[in-house]
Design a protein that fits this description.
Blueprint: E1 4-9, H1 16-25, E2 31-37, H2 48-61, E3 68-73, H3 78-85, E4 89-93, H4 97-114, E5 117-121, H5 132-140, H6 151-159
Parallel strand pairs: 1-2, 1-4, 2-3, 4-5
The structure holds 4'-phosphopantetheine.
Residues 8-10, 37, 39, 42, 77-78, 106, 109-110 line the site of 4'-phosphopantetheine (PNS).
């Protein structure tokens, strides 16, 4: 049976912390789907198609294995996407206890809903302070986001 996992997120935009988790997870599964999910609780900076395109560039530039699929999902439950593609695992990067507290209820509900397990992965601590919201703020105020995001994202945001 193929082992298929999903890394979901807003990815608005993808950061070096996200890319680190993707790079660590890709070799552990036959297929890794990086899925941009619309989060109605957050005001978006980038359209979903743009986020997908920047993830594709980051994954390609990062030399991540050819088993990574980039997609988006905006209708219905995330576990419905998992069921559609045959994924039994969700992967979340955990930077701190705050992330654990945020992710734990979702992990339990996703298991209840569809038997999809969540695997928490620890990214490189060098990226522990990096978040998409911080990147959005720096970019909005005209700062250089290069230290926090893949090159393709820095090029895009610094030129915007
Ligand atoms: O990058 P984010 O914004 O922290 O990602 C959060 C996300 C999109 C992964 C989360 O909001 C999510 O899983 N949304 C899917 C909606 C869903 O299925 N909810 C019910 C079970 S938790």
């Amino acid at each position: 049976m193929r082992r298929i996992a999903v890394v979901p997120g807003s990815f608005d935009p993808i950061t070096l912390g996200h890319l680190d988790v993707i790079e660590r997870a890709a070799p552990l599964y036959d297929e890794l789907h990086v899925v941009v999910v619309h989060n109605p609780d957050k005001e978006a900076l980038l359209p979903i198609a743009q986020r997908v395109s920047l993830i594709e560039s980051a994954v390609k530039d990062g030399g991540v294995g050819g088993n990574v699929v980039v997609a988006s999902w905006s209708v219905g439950l995330l576990v419905d996407y998992c069921t559609d593609v045959g994924a039994s695992v969700l992967i979340k990067g955990i930077r701190s206890q705050v992330d654990v507290a945020y992710e734990t209820p979702m992990a339990i509900v996703n298991r209840d809903l569809a038997g999809v397990e969540t695997v928490f992965m620890l990214p490189n601590p060098a990226h522990a302070h990096v978040s998409s919201s911080l990147v959005r703020q720096v970019a909005a105020l005209g700062g250089d986001v290069t230290p926090y995001v893949p090159q393709a994202v820095a090029g895009f945001l610094n030129a915007s």
